[in-house]
Design brief:
Elements (H helix, E strand, L loop, with lengths): L1 H14 L19 H11 L8 E5 L1 H8 L8 H16 L9 H10 L4 E4 L4 E5 L5 H20 L3 H4 L5 H24 L3 H21 L5 H25 L3 H7 L6 H4 L2 H5 L16 E6 L3 H9 L4 H9 L1 E11 L2 E10 L2 H15 L7 E6 L2 E7 L11 H17 L6 H13 L3 H10 L7 H15 L1
Parallel strand pairs: 1-3
Antiparallel strand pairs: 2-3, 4-5, 5-6, 6-8, 7-8
């Protein structure tokens, strides 16, 4: 979602400090403890490090301080962006009136992470001072970022050239998905005993993180997880269709939109994104920001309040959009104009938006028309609305569809496999099973869900 990207950039702009006068310092040789991990990354990522990087092991308190941002460190412009982000989240009924976006992003940066690589300083920062098994796995992920950076440049110098939040989101998915791939390969080659130990530790840490993040809006949590969950699957599909070397080409020419990750049929069709005119401002309103919205953000928005299959169909038909945030009579508002891939897709988006707006009381949301395109307008309704917190469940559904499509690829094209997978997930009784799918995404699905999937598959095949 555009506003989540803005929030992340605000925090990153404060936390990441680059040296403008000379290149970042790096060691002449690897720390002996890190060398075997770096060698694994080189071998499995098929890239060579041009130089070692520093790995800083910090206590939990030191890590949290480095990974988070104090309000006093923010510029007035950064504070204004956060305020705008909070207003848009509330206007879209995805957060409660008292949401604190900085606190939420800080919680995601501390409780939601174990390490991070900073491209502009070319250093890895790790939470913890011991090289335990789970830290080794984490380091594989972060060292993969380091070799990506040295091979393709993932620093702010490159990302600052992106012109849309869709480009930023999709590039981050490629970066994170690639690192997850290599991390998983490292876990797979562990001994059975070590793998069981790591999985137990990972599950415990995941449970702790979920508790710590319970007050963070689900839309923000899903946005944080989206690049990891969808990026690795997207790259696996690209490699399956075009060969392992094609992943390097994706780094050179990454996707432009969230849609390519959510529904890669768009990527393989080479869909282009049309220029959509920004919505007009109401008379007397003051524009506070402009951006783009994205297909996954549309899915999260719609599925929070309307029938999930209808939301998924609308998101699949996303073709482009333009968003403006504004203040009207002292209230935070947003307006988004949407175009579909086809005329029918545009109408499906319009219908879904109208269904969503009808759930917002008091006339705080409406759907109008601009040059034949639907425009969603929404303002903060205060205590009158609240999120149903379904974003993580909906992400789990998108992951399930992707995995089903990959399982159907033997003998089917990408188009047909995703069409079949879409049919299956639309047959699932989501009111009962969606949360179960979300809870089970890191483990085997329970027998009841498997039976549901088999029955859905039979209906689609019939």
């Amino acid at each position: 979602m555009a506003l989540v990207g803005v929030a992340a950039c605000v925090v990153a702009s404060v936390v990441v400090v680059s040296n403008k006068h000379r290149g970042p310092a790096h060691p002449d040789q690897w720390d002996a403890r890190i060398l075997p991990l770096a060698a694994f990354v080189e071998q499995h990522r098929h890239l060579r490090f041009s130089h070692p990087v520093y790995v800083d092991f910090l206590s939990t308190a030191e890590y949290d301080k480095k990974a988070t941002t104090e309000e006093g460190a923010l510029s007035e412009a950064d504070k204004q962006k956060l305020t705008q982000g909070e207003a848009v989240l509330r206007a879209l009924a995805l957060a409660a009136p008292g949401v604190d976006l900085l606190a939420s992003v800080n919680e995601l940066s501390s409780s939601g992470t174990l390490a991070f690589y900073t491209p502009d300083t070319q250093r890895v920062t790790v939470k913890g001072t011991d090289l335990s098994l789970d830290v080794k796995v984490t380091l594989i992920h972060e060292l993969t970022h380091a070799v990506q950076d040295q091979s393709f440049d993932i620093s702010s110098k490159r990302t600052s050239e992106f012109t849309t939040s869709g480009q930023e989101a999709s590039f981050r998915a490629v970066v994170e998905g690639d690192a997850v791939r290599i991390e998983n390969e490292y876990v797979d080659q562990l001994s059975a005993a070590d793998r069981a130990q790591y999985q137990a530790t990972y599950q415990r840490q995941s449970d702790q993180a979920r508790k710590a993040l319970a007050e963070v809006p689900a839309a923000l949590r899903a946005s944080q997880e989206f690049p990891y969950a969808m990026g690795q699957r997207f790259l696996a599909l690209v490699a399956d269709q075009d060969g392992e070397s094609s992943i390097d080409e994706v780094f050179r020419h990454p996707p432009d939109t969230e849609e390519d990750l959510l529904d890669p049929r768009a990527w393989f069709r080479h869909d282009t994104v049309p220029k959509v005119a920004a919505p007009s401002l109401p008379e007397g309103a003051e524009k506070t920001d402009d951006s783009d919205f994205g297909a996954f953000s549309l899915l999260v928005l719609l599925a929070d309040r309307i029938d999930v299959p209808a939301a998924l169909r609308a998101a699949d038909g996303w073709g482009g959009d333009a968003e403006i945030a504004y203040r009207d009579k002292g209230n935070g508002c947003t307006a988004v104009a949407f175009a579909g891939d086809t005329g029918n897709d545009t109408e499906a988006i319009r219908t879904a938006l109208e269904q969503w707006a009808a759930t917002i009381p008091g006339g705080f949301a409406s759907v109008t028309d601009s040059d034949g395109l639907p425009v969603l307008r929404a303002c903060d309704a205060g205590e009158a609305t609240k999120s149903n917190e379904r974003a993580n469940d909906v992400l789990a559904l998108a992951v399930l569809r992707f995995e089903l499509a990959q399982s159907f690829l033997d003998g089917l094209s990408v188009d047909k496999s995703f069409a079949a997978a879409s049919c299956v997930v639309e047959q699932i009784p989501l009111d009962k099973d969606l949360a179960v799918l979300s809870a089970a995404k890191d483990t085997d699905l329970p027998p009841g869900i498997l039976a549901t999937l088999r029955a859905a598959g039979a209906r689609c095949a019939g």
